[in-house]
Structure formats: structure tokens, C-alpha cells
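A note from the maintainers: we've had questions about how concatenated examples are separated. There is no special marker in the raw files; a new sequence line simply starts the next protein. For clarity in this README we add a label.
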Amino acid sequence: MNILVVVDMQNDFIDGSLGTEEAQRIVPEVVKKIQTFDGTDKVTFGSRELVKKLEQIQEETSIESITLIGLCTDICVISNAMLCKAFLPEVPVQVDASCCAGVTVESHMQALEAMKMCQIDIL
């Protein structure tokens, strides 16, 4: 089973007080990505509940991969990707960069590089 984790795709983060042009630009790609996966998971920022849910799924069936998309690459996406990698080290964890945006373009790119260094695949 492939798991898709959609992180903080909320109005406030897209076009509200915390929104950016980059966040608005990824919305069509996020919609496409969601339509191609068979499930989504996200409970709270840096969520142990997310990890518990993924561990439960892993016990019931084999997770082939975990893909994260959403906002913000440099805060919520990276923290959740690191949790997934730490608690499920044998499961490939990946981040689709075309479906993510950071607080700034620079911090987005830095977060992607940091995740690469931690064996998280960047698509």
C-alpha cells in the first residue's frame, strides 16, 4: 500500500494570512496527487498520532511507501517526514517537491536538501 500524507493544505496557509504565491501555485498539483492515491493521513503538526496510524497500517498490511505533500516544506512537511523516517525506517519516505511550498523559496530548497541528507527521497 502506498500512503499519501497531505500536510496543512488549509485556506490560511494557501491564500490566507500565512499564504504565499508558491502555496497557491501548488494547489492544482496537490489535487492531482490526491486523486491518484488511495488514502490520506494527517492528524496534527509533528504528530505522534500520524506515526501510530502508520504503524497500525504497517501491522495490518505492508506499506510500500509514504509520500508527503503540502505546506510548509520547511516546517510541517520536514518534521512529519523525519518522524515517518525515524519510526518506520524500512519504509521508503518521499516528498513530492512539486506539491510542496515553503515559507520562502530558499527555505523550501534548504528543507528539501536536509531531507535528502536523511534518506528521504525527493520527487
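[label: protein 2]
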Amino acid sequence: MIEKVSVIIPTYNLENYIGRCLESVINQSYSNLEIIVVNDGSTDNTQIIAEQYLRNDSRIIVINQDNMGLSGARNTGLDVSTGDYIYLLDADDFINPNTIYKLLKIAIENKGLVIVAGDHRIVY
């Protein structure tokens, strides 16, 4: 597989979660990723944390914008994405190391699929 997956992560005031979220994406077994963090006007340290990750991983793009809400932040990510596939991930969530690989494999094996979804777990 050589397809690029754009992972779009909208975030607003989630400094306590953005690190874990980004670590889970950076450490995916499938590495042809474009990781787009849309900082939607955060007033905490979210922007600083995201930019620290940006300095260590060239796949990361950080976009800072005035608050436009979740849909507005996702749309900003979609506007700049260059991937063959899109994965939407909330900044207070994280994914297992093989998530992108497994979903991409399903999409490729079943040509014509528009949406591929997987299970989720609630972790407190």
C-alpha cells in the first residue's frame, strides 16, 4: 500500500489529551500519513504542545485559526488535506497502533467503499 492517509485532528482547549492522541497517530504501523492538527482557537497550551510535535515529525501540519467549532475545524483540515483517504480523529481520543492499516486494507480490498468504520472503546 502506498496510499496516503490524512488524519485530521480538530482541537480546542485539549492540552491534557492532545499529546496522547498525537502519540497514537505517530506510532501507527502504517506510516504514510499526513497528520493535520487544526487548533480551533485554543486558549490553553494546546497550540504549544502541537507545535512541539510538529518540530519532531515532518508528517505533522499545525493550523491555527479563530474558533469556528468542530465542523469548521474539520472543514479546514479537509481543505488542506492531500491524502487519498481521510481519517477523522478527535483530539481527546487515541487509536490502536494498527488502526489505520486495518481500515485502509478494508477500503482497498473493497474498492468502491466510501466509508470504513471500526469498533470503539470507551476508556476513562
